[in-house]
Amino acid sequence: MNMKPNLLLTVLLVLGIPLSILAQTVKTITGTVTEENGNPLPGAKVVIQGKTASRVTDDQGRFSFSNTKESELLVVSMVGYIGKTVVITSQNQYKIQLVANNTALDDVVIVGYGQVKRKDLTGSVGSVVMKDMEKASVVSFEDALAGRVAGVQVGSGDGQPGSISNITIRGGNSITQSNSPLYVIDGFPLESPDNNTINPDDIESIDILKDASSTAIYGARGANGVIMIKTKEGKVGAPVVNYNNWLGYQYPAKQIEVMSPYEFVKYQLDLNKTSATALYLKDGKTLDAYRGEQGINWQDYVLQNAFMQNHSFSMRGGTAATKYSVSSSYLDQNGIVINGGYKRYQGRFQIDQRLGKNMRIGINTNYTYGIKKGQIANLTSDNLNSSSAGNASSYLMYSTWGYRPVTGNADDENFLDQPFDDDVAGNTDLRINPVVNSNNLYQYAFNKSLTTNAFAEYAFLKYFKFKVSGGMTDTRLVFERFNNSNTAAGNPRTVYGQSYGINGSLENQNIRSLLNENLLTFNKTFNKKHRLDAVAGFTMQRNSMEGDGFVSILLPNESLGVRGLDQGTILVKTTSGTYSTLVSFLGRVNYTFNSRYLFTASIRSDGSSKFARDNRVGYFPSGAFAWNIGEENFLKSVKAISSAKLRASYGITGNNRVSDFAYLSILDQEVGANTGNTRSGYYFNGQYIKGTVPVGLGNENLKWERTGNLDLGIDLSFFKQRISLTADYYYKRTTDLLLNASLPTSTGYLTAFKNIGVVVNRGLEFTLNTINLRTKKFSWTSNFNIAFNTNKIEELNGDQPSLITRVSNWNANFNNSLPYIALPGRPVALFYGYVFDGVYPLSDFNVLSNGSYELKPDVPNNGSARSLIKPGFIKYKDVNGDGVVDANDQTIVGNPNPKHIGGFSNNFNYGPFDLNVFLQWSYGNDILNANRIVFEGAEARPSLNMFKTYENRWSLENQDSNLPVAGGYGPNVFSDRNIEDGSFLRLKTVSLGYNLSSTVTKKLKIQSARFNVSAQNLITWTNYSGLDPEVSVRHSALTPGFDWSPYPRARTITFGMNLTF
Amino acid sequence: MKTTLLYIAMMLALVVSSCSKILDTTPQDFVSPVNYYNTESELQSALAGVYDRLGDNRVYSQGMSCYMVFSDEFFMKNQTSGMNANIVDASTLELNRHWETLYTGIERANMLLENIDKAVKVTVEKRNEIKGQALFLRAYYYFLLADEFGGVPLKLQSSKSPEEPPLPGTPLKDLYERIVTDMKQAEGLVKSISDYGYNTRITKTTVQGILARVYLTMAGAPLNDVAKYADARTYAEKVMLSGLHSLNPDFKQIYINHVQEIFDTRESLWEVEFKGVNQGEIQEGGMIGSYNGITCGNIEMGYGYDYVHATAKLYNAYANGDLRRDWTVAPYRYVTSGQTAVRTNWAADQLYDRSNGKWRREYELLLPRNQNYTGTNWPLLRYADVLLMFAEADNYTNNGPSVNAYKAINMVRRRGYGKDVLVPDIAADAAANLSQQDFLDLIRNERLRELAFEGIRKHDLVRWGIYPSVMQTQAREYQTNMPTALKDAAVAQAQRVTDRAVLFPIPNSELAVNPNIEQNRGW
Q1: Cβ proximity of A743 and B507 under 8 Å
Q2: Minimal C-alpha gap between B492 and chain A (Å)
Q3: Can you tell me the ipTM of this complex?
């Protein structure tokens, strides 16, 4: 009996000897299930083949059976591990080691309205490897999602705490509307949830539906892909209590070097000798005297090292009848910019109860209270609501970089505390001290978010289940702002302060979604070869949003803050409300023949209130076929290949991201103060009459946008699944785009929604999982993914030849320059501008008799008048060769779309140590660095400091320089001078962990303990000169990759402890 | 089990039947045009929306008082970028917004005119009064568009769907014909200025005065339909014979009245009404006096940006004794240091340093002052203008100035010299027996002297067909005579007025999506 059990089994089977004959006497066995490193595996399922009795291992991984016989088979399985079958021998004790299933073919993948095993999947679904992602200590799962799944592009606008990422799956379909995916959180579909409300520790799995066969079941909302998030449930067994804690600190990953006092004064003298002499060379002080001066680097005062902590507690467990999960967490993240940060209090409760034989009910509730504090770095702060641009000086990084390092006065000490720089240009050019302004700003955003889902499931007729669920997410946002007399918006010397005095505002938003789903599922295997599972359902969803708020101005008691707003003059800011409804029918059939041929067909019909009656309903079908070719005999004999599957799918998905009543024309009265260009009333003889005016042109013909989506994929694994590869090709063609189309403005409207335009995205995705090394003590596994997407406009708003787009709210001087262009045949966004041609050398000029320079007649101008151009001024190429540089010389100067993106995650295990190294990259995308435009000479405001790079500007003594002379920036246009390669490779996460050995944990009476130190954003390799290459502060499909006054990116080091009791 | 299935089926049936009800949503925070235009207050509110466009930043609050109307009367001090420096192309934001603003005004008027007769409960008389104002304003916006952009699309119906084909340009002649037709219709519908007692509504004499301006424009470049001089004369005369208007004896009081928001309905036929300093909910202040006022760095004194500077040509256009000079061209500025500002006179030779002095913020009554916003009204039609238009039209139709033409111009001149307008005055009166051409030259200069900084000079130069040549002369004059510190920017501004500059380019926001319209020549 020392043959290997499998072989024995085979032999017995071949001989046809009935097993029962060999069966010995009845006995009791016990066993433990462990990981390879010996750690117990609680929750593993153990059954004896052919019998109904099953066991789940306890917290020590133990199990026992009483009525067993020799030769029976123990089948051990657990999600995430390769199952194992063990023959019962004469032994009574069994130690069973399970190997982690790197390829996860048996993993369950959450798909729309159901779940399937990965090996049975016909569509393209990317799963996040949660145990890798958990290594990153992050506030929101979005922060760790980039690079985890092929084809999922994740970018945060900048480093602002609590901000929301831009996620695009397989390229953007839409030109003017949102390209963000649909989120389905525990079955609840939401179009734009604030994912900061989810505690990452609560997440069990994240699956990303990419192709039509998986997304078409979400019909009208599936075209941008779907992110399925499932939270952790209780598992049968004793309560598992977990405490996860990390403490850490963050510091700015980078500062931009600005000019030193000496360089600054020298530049000032270059710019305007007279005024600079008066300011800086007072009382016989010389320029050289500034050489030794330290000056103030305002970044040192505005940025800080910030503490961060997270405590997360959970208790999960259950019996066969009741499973429960409770968790609670607290997170406190101070900002690396002073007076800001993010805090979160969160709790979740989940219960799943069996009632009788056929009924199951459950509730899953989460409440999160999030507090965001501090100014938004890339918006002006001198405004009552930060939606419109104010004084450039109140952009955080503008004022930090630009505030001068020295005053030229003997007594410089108070400069740090003075709210304004009085020596500089008085009221016309008010400069706000960034430290004073930041410290005094009171800007809070509170988010109270309650999600609750309940369901009842009834199993009947053996193969049927009927599930009714109802849910609600209710988000209350409260925005509080207060501008005291030391802020840019409240000081009487500023434009806003003058008009409004001390002021503040309160705004409430209530966003609610109600959902009802009714699903009937059928699951049966016929004749062992035919497996059919089907789902049919009916769902209703209602989304609504209400808002109200007021502004209070001229406040008498500054000290009361926002609670004293009632004492001022109250202005209505907004009262608004809108809602939409969606009623859908859905159905899907999965048919599997012989585990080899897999067919999926699905259809959804969506009726949406967002369209006029005749166009409401859309149908979204899909079909897919997969062939487990590895099961075929001709491949089975190839030993190297352990599994192989071919997939093909096609389907139609939709997009309904238009405003709730886009089909209707809108008449509106003007809204309240300070909300933009809406002053639509008029005074007659001192009496004001409010205006009622058309503000939106409806389109009765609006209908669904449609995306046809083809996916061809292959899943291969080799050498007993040590290497597995998934590759996909996709082709998405979006037609009848819901385009917020430009109208000829002679219509009286700028834009209106039309179904027009065609966009194509196609690409390749590869995911490679490998077990590189596996010895008893040491293992190295890795996950590598890469995605290539090309995006192309095939048709744009009918005959419209191009769409050029302005970047609003950054610098009013550049209002007439539009840096983005969309052209048929090209990607949705490209950079557009002049071609930089260095600076005008002396040889381009004739010297006049009075010693002044005159541009030679055959040398083109730079967009400025010829008489204004002097040596060292910026030069642009006369692209069309007409001798004049003007708007007609603009051309495509860059591409913000990456050629490929990806991630590379590595896990090393050595004894009790584990190390995770995660790299993420983006290659081939350009960034428009607008900071460099302003701080390398364009904004020639007196006494505005510049970047250190501008020290090397052109001058008679430095004629080789390519940087324009002081004051020589020329017209306010964009050029390729400021387009930079934004490619980067980032060492995003490094996490080193140590697991206490079981002997120690036993002594401490705990189940397991892990300690770790981890780092986020440790190293970024890039040629980009700005603060961080992952930047897009005015993000939209038409304006990606714009860098202006970004919140600096933090590098984070955390020390963590994870205890399980 | 059967009952279960039955139950499910029943529930589904119930749910399905209520589906279409669930999908019938109604907007909560705006109204739809079909539900509006029923009561008088709704009509008045819609009309206020049509008027509103006059006060937009890119119309009279700012743009059309300076950077959109570059002429020989001013330059923008040291402005080298954007429209402030007269740099214009089809993508210029201000220009796009200007066009859009006027066309939204037209759309608002179209909506009102289409729906006004739904308000059957409102008396016909009241409806006519509202209809007349809307009709006139629509025609006036077209007049501005025709003047600035040439043969623009003529849209007399409101937009019904974004899928309507874009309109082509309209031949300029047809456009003017329609403007005239609508204004004449409005003339018969609107009320008299005496019915209101203020001048910010459209009244009969306003319509007549503007019709005179429209006819004069048609008589000049580019249409050169000289027959229209007679019509211009007729309509100017209608205003003169109405008995409702006369010159304010004190030239400077006209502008003090604007600043103090006092309605002088005799001198001033039509004004844009601005009010308040944009503090609070209603933001209807303008930038008259701050953007185009006397240089001053102090808010309490009345802040003035240092932009609009008078030219030597303007200053020198006034003879000795003409009191208009030192009001129009400010002889002083405020020198600011720290929190104080001191009124300081310019030296006699500092001709190019002087600001526009017409609307002086020290006269503002609403305190404290705001840096940018003022309640100062903007004049759109003054009686002096009507008199000068009459004289100009009469000079043409009679092949030389008639007695009445002399009478009209002399009234304006005598007032300028501080004299009684009806009493002949040797110093003030125009030289007798001028030839037709000399009288025309006199009118041209008189309009410069009388109407400087009122946004009409560029329009005049264009219709006289001399805009580019006058501006190129100015560029040379700046080159020779301006102080070095001011010269470069001003020369560049004037040089940009080449032949194409008689019209603005059709803005990109139209051109890019309207294949049926052609860009103006030279752009």
Answers
A1: no
A2: 6
A3: 0.95
